[in-house]
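User: Please fill in residues for this 135-position structure.
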């Protein structure tokens, strides 16, 4: 899964426009996070085909950034996030973004963007959602 980030002037209907563009291109949004900071909307979408999403959005004059993301599954208990983030930090992997995708009484699913994807995947292999779920 890849994260596509759009930064745009905040306006009414922005998310409706972006989701319409992606739907028209037959791109499913796997997860979504929207923040507004200083009049700018920061929209982070997880999609399977980031290049197709990027092309569709850029064709509609949106500025898009795409980066590699890992999705991990943690036990929902104190200290689990600390354990994996310490593991990454100790090996020099910088976390650039974390997004909680879901949480219940047993598990927490997180999306993480990191600067050293391959290294992070090796370090967090037991936590990777694709590994756990056979995806």
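Assistant: Residues filled in for all 135 positions:
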């Amino acid at each position: 899964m890849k994260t596509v980030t759009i930064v745009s002037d905040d306006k009414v209907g922005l998310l409706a426009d972006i989701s319409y563009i992606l739907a028209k291109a037959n791109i499913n949004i796997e997860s979504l996070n929207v923040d507004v900071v200083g009049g700018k909307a920061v929209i982070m979408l997880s999609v399977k085909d980031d290049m197709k999403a990027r092309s569709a959005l850029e064709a509609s004059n949106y500025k898009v950034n795409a980066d590699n993301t890992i999705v991990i599954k943690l036990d929902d208990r104190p200290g689990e996030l600390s354990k994996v983030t310490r593991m990454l930090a100790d090996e020099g992997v910088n976390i650039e973004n974390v997004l909680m995708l879901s949480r219940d009484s047993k598990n927490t699913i997180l999306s993480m963007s990191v600067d050293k994807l391959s290294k992070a995947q090796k370090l967090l292999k037991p936590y990777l959602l694709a590994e756990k779920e056979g995806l």
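For context: The chain has two domains: 2-67, 68-133.
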